Amino acid sequence: MITLKQNDTGIGILSTLSNENGPVDLLGATVLFYMGEHAISPTAQDEINGVLLVTFNSIHTVVTGLFKAEFEVKFSDGRVETFPNDGYLQVNIIKDLGGN
Questions:
Q1: 78: Cβ–Cβ under 8 A, 6 or more apart, which residues?
Q2: Rounded to whole angstroms, what are the CA distances from 55 to 14, 32, 46?
Q3: pLDDT in tens, 36-53
Q4: CB–CB of 35/60 below 8 Å?
Q5: CA distances from 5 to 18, 22, 78 (A)
Q6: Is the CATH number 2.60.40.3350 carried by domain 2-94?
Q7: Which of 13, 14, 73, 79 could join 54 in a cystine, given CB atoms 3.0 to 4.6 angstroms apart?
């Protein structure tokens, strides 16, 4: 489970996408990270080895709660693959104690 505080920004999730063949080559692919009602475009850190960074902004963390999340990859040849494919990532946004 990934835990964030409400209204936090600039926090990222570094993730490596892999399947039964190992790390997924993301060259030429389009990737979105879906969390609740949000579709976030991650930044590729190492496309050949499937490494991505998802960075959250205040819009993504304003609402507290437990959210299902997943990566959806659209490859240049038209294939679509979702990670994880056996469930969901869980993102828990908890209330902060102060600030705005």
A1: none
A2: 9, 12, 16
A3: 999 999 999 999 999 999
A4: yes
A5: 28, 32, 37
A6: yes
A7: 13
